[in-house]
Design brief:
Distance between the termini: 5 Å
Shape: globular
Number of domains: 3
CATH class of the largest domain: Alpha Beta
Oligomer: single chain
Helix content: 25-40%
CATH superfamily of the largest domain: Adenylosuccinate Synthetase, subunit A, domain 1
Bound molecules: inosinic acid
Largest sheet: 10 strands, mixed
Number of strands: 20
Structural class: alpha/beta
Number of helices: 13
Radius of gyration: 22 Å
CATH architecture of the largest domain: 3-Layer(aba) Sandwich
Length: 431
């Protein structure tokens, strides 16, 4: 029995982690986020009601669960407070008692969002990444450049103003001179963040210390990843990645606390592949099959509403992602979307200039140049909508699962067959 379970997206995000986290959160005492920010969009459907969470851990929907937003998360304080208000309106209770925000988290401020949007607008002539324009990249940049402003800084107005003003000299120069955008005003911003500080106060805590104590007390911890391994700043398809580390090893760093001795790393894969934003996507289908996946799977971004690019399952990329992250268990989502295909394809190697590749190359341009080599496997006609037990799954679906297990070496523990909380086939428990 594990005391810690890490849930990580294995592909390019959007694997449906929110639902899987919500499922395991039933058994957890604490759900903690350790990286990313409100670039994430975790959709959960409970009793026919849809919740989209961007910053607060998906575990919040269970009334007994405590939630932590760790220091590795970059926090837009306005979004944090808006999300709290939305949750309250939806009847989610005890948020001041249950949600804790690290005093060391870096703040996404107005100038970060303005810079993200300006760069993506192409004004400076830089490379378009297709970001969510939420200011994530510029905030992580400031963190390592040692000029970031953290949650704790909000509570000393004089020092906050000094730091903000000092940063703004450079940011406004870039915004005006390089990108031809409106500068950010100091006065307005300082007043705004002062008001925000008071509203944020009840949630702010030394979360690292708290989590360490809770782990020592034997509490069960669920770690909620955002984005996915292939968007990791080091191991993803660089530079078409997010700006944080998305791998399980980041949990300890992004929360300032050790792992429980017995911790399980679980990866979430969609039964096919999707990607939003720019960057290589070997198995992308720009044809009627891709359109069918998008339509049936309702593949539109939960954060930006952008249509997702769709394609067959890329097992080379999945196996690579599992190896760099140490994941041994898998949850497969959106299996229901594949019903009605006579046959399915899975990518088992790449061909690059006459050579076979069996893993993801470091040079992203090579990944753009490869041709996928596919194996074709039988599909299934049967709808999975009401299937709740493993023994009722179609035989060819089991072959698909076995193929994935054999190819990757990971064990499939959970299958999600629909958006609702109840649409889950639990093969092997995690906690
Ligand atoms: P950023 O994280 O907003 O800087 O965006 C960098 C890249 O990561 C872009 O391709 C985004 O579309 C992608 N991305 C960021 N967050 C998510 C997510 O939660 N799901 C899927 N893609 C994401």
């Amino acid at each position: 029995m594990a005391q810690g379970v890490v849930i990580i997206g294995v592909q390019w995000g959007d694997e449906g982690k929110g639902k899987i986290v919500d499922y395991y959160a039933r058994e957890a005492n604490i759900v903690a986020r350790f990286q990313g920010g409100n670039n994430a969009g975790h959709t959960i459907v409970v009793g026919g009601k849809q919740y989209i969470l961007h910053l607060i851990p998906s575990g919040v929907l269970h009334p007994h669960t405590e939630c932590i937003v760790g220091s590795g998360v970059v926090v837009d304080p306005e979004v944090f407070l808006e999300e709290i208000e939305t949750l309250k309106k939806l009847g989610i209770v005890d948020l001041e008692k249950r949600v804790r925000l690290s005093d060391r988290s870096h703040l996404i401020l107005e100038y970060h969002k303005a810079l993200d949007a300006a760069r993506e607008g192409g004004g400076g002539g830089g490379k378009k990444i297709g970001t969510t324009k939420r200011g994530i990249g510029p905030t992580y940049e400031d963190r390592v450049a040692r000029r970031g402003i953290r949650v704790a800084d909000l509570f000393d107005k004089a020092s906050f103003t000094e730091k903000f003003e000092s940063n703004l000299k450079e940011k406004n120069f870039l915004l005006k001179e390089m990108y031809g955008c409106e500068p950010v005003s100091v006065e307005r911003a300082v007043e705004k963040y002062s008001a925000i500080a008071e509203k944020l106060r009840p949630f702010v805590a030394d979360t690292a210390d708290h989590l360490t104590n809770q782990i020592a007390a034997g509490k069960k911890i669920l770690y909620e990843g955002a984005q996915g391994v292939l968007l990791d700043v080091d191991y993803g398809t660089y530079p078409y990645v997010t700006s944080s580390q998305t791998l399980p090893s980041q949990c300890a760093l992004g929360l300032g606390s050790r792992f429980p001795d017995n911790t399980l790393f679980m990866g979430v894969i969609k039964a096919y592949s999707t990607r939003v934003g720019e960057g290589p996507f070997v198995t992308e289908l720009k044809d009627a099959t891709g359109e069918k996946l998008r339509k049936t799977g309702n593949e539109f971004g939960a954060t930006t509403g952008r249509p997702r690019r769709c394609g067959w399952l890329d097992l080379v990329a999945v196996r690579y992602a599992l190896r760099v992250s140490g994941i041994t268990r898998l949850a497969i989502t959106k299996a229901d979307v594949l019903s009605g295909f006579a046959e399915l394809k899975v990518c088992v190697s790449y061909e690059h200039k006459g050579k076979r590749l069996t893993t993801v190359p470091a040079v992203t341009q090579h990944l753009e140049e490869v041709t996928p080599i596919y194996e074709t496997v039988p599909g299934w006609e049967q709808s999975l909508v009401n299937v709740r037990s493993a023994s009722d799954l179609p035989k060819s679906m089991w072959s698909y699962i076995s193929y994935i297990e054999k190819f990757t070496g990971a064990k499939v523990s959970l299958i999600s067959t629909g958006a609702g909380r109840e649409a889950v086939i639990d093969i092997e428990s995690a906690f």
